[in-house]
Amino acid sequence: MYLRDGCSLLLKVRKPSIPFVLNTNPIFNLEKPQLQPSPVPESHVVKVLKHEPDIVLALEYFKSVANSGAFKHTHWTYHIMIEKLGRSSEMDGVQYLLQQMKLEGVSCSEELFICVMNSYRRAGLADQALKMFYRIREFGCKPTVKIYNHLLDSLLGENRFQMISPVYNNMKGEGLEPNVFTYNILLKALCKNGKVDGACKLLEEMSNKGCPPDVVSYTTIISSMCKFGQVEKAKELAMRFAPMVPVYNALINGVCKEYKIEEAFGLMNEMVSKGVDPNAISYSTIISCLSDMGNIDLSLAVFAQMLMRGCSPNVHTFTSLIRGYFLEGRIGDALRMWKLMIQEGVKPNVVSYNTVIYGLCSYGNMAEAISIWNQMEKHFCHPNVITYSTLIHGFAKSGNLLGASEIWNKMINCGCHPNVVTYTSMVDVLCQMSMFNQAYHLIDNMIAHGCPPTVVTFNTFIKGLCAGGRVQWAMSVLDQMEKYECVPNIRTYNELLDGLFKVSRLREACGLIREMEERKLELNCVTYNTIMYGFSCLGMQERVLQLLGKMLVNGVKPDSFTFNIIISAYCKLGKVRTAIQILDKTIAGKELCPDIIAHTTLLWGICNWLGIEEAIVYLHKMLDKGMFPNFVTWNVLVRGLFDNLGHIGPIRILDDILGNG
Fold first, then answer.
1. Cα torsion at 203, 205, 209, 214 (round to 10°)?
2. Which of 422, 503, 511 is nearest to 466 (CA)?
3. Of 298, 306, 554, 628, whose CB neighbour count within 10 A is largest?
4. Each residue of 177-204: pLDDT tens digit?
């Protein structure tokens, strides 16, 4: 067999339509005597192909040994080469070699055809796997239950539910009886598609046809029931058969998702009472739930019980504990747990690395986060898009825009494709650097890279433009969102309103408010605060108070920022007594706790409208309540004193206040 030299299966840019071509009629040089090459044993060819890690070199050897005439490829050597090509997702090469086997009369075994099906599945080409399956007899192979199972699993992996039923019916039409693996794939397909009742009926069909469900069958349905909130129904189903660890784990996971931690402990106690030992998954699920609930101390108690019962913690156990420590702000304890995990010989995975990096980035510890990232690469754990997104966001949050840009470039150079979160973080970085054109082009390129921008992406861009004083551009982005089939939400309008009020464009802001009402968008607390603050800055205090009434009528609960705007509005109108009453009622009602901004604003109002004496009295009340002045408070008071008393009097009064403080 002769294969034309110089044609590579792995050329990505100018890949030939047929990866390599068989020359069945080689032309020999008749002037020179032809020496018969020494035969190469199959075992040698198999050994070389198996142990060559480089797909290009393996292919070159595969061609050269055939072209030498010393060896004719067998079913086994074809199998090895097809498997290698399949693992590299070189499906053109796989198809060509199958065709070559057909021409040479080398039959395709069940095992090899399964290998081909799995190659299509890894490449995400389930539809091509189906087409190849319908040609199975061309290659001297007959459909079997095992081959059907791998095909069904391939279709399931890509959620091709509409194809699964016809393939299954075709299988039964050929007289092949499904086994437990077939049924389990069908159960997964039904559950994945939300048809839990259909899965329960199929479970009964299994038993009726003499194919007893196994632990995978029950666990699949119980997990799905818990996922859809049918925990009680799942418990009833679990009572019908002998207790099994995976089934209990599915139930524990179900109740933990609803944060029913007492029920989770009850299920674990039930396991033990029935002689079923909880495993690492059982404990880790409860520890993870407790950590998410902010109860790291109880998580540690469960961890201790786990060790006492001789159950070794896994990477998920340690990761959950580390996450719990970070959620409570205990960074040192989180890093100590990380070191303990490594000391115990538990190898961190990408999830555990991401957890630590996220925790460190959340608290602005970027140097330590980068150190963990470097460890990740050193220990051959490849960062994923979540790793890069976390670092980019962390750098952006800490104001290190250059660091964020470097991580982005590193991600692109490593061939890691950004997701919408990464793109959005990078848009934020570019906006903070006032690189608005680059941010716009980045959004425009998202479609081309199969990652369409979301409303969050546009909101980030609009916020950046408004912060940079590019409000007109921000308004045009609102119109462009429709081009990307992206519907603006309340936050989009909030960002635009904030930008418009900051540059005193009242008419356009009012037009935007009317547009929101026409779209029937419900104004939230942030919207009302933004508009009221804008009105207040423009001296429209009466409009502020009118809008407060509308806010309350519409059932929107004010927050502390609303309260500060209202106190300011009353003070600016000279209605300081009313402002004092509102503040006192708020403190008495304990619904909101007025902050130093509210007290400082009120102090400003008292200084301007009621006189410096009352301001001093109010300051003492503040101090008695434990509300200590900040720089702005003192600034307001000093300005009031000097405006009223000249230069000498304020110094004596301040000395008296500070002396008594």
1. 0
2. 503
3. 306
4. 999 999 999 999 999 988 999 999 998 8
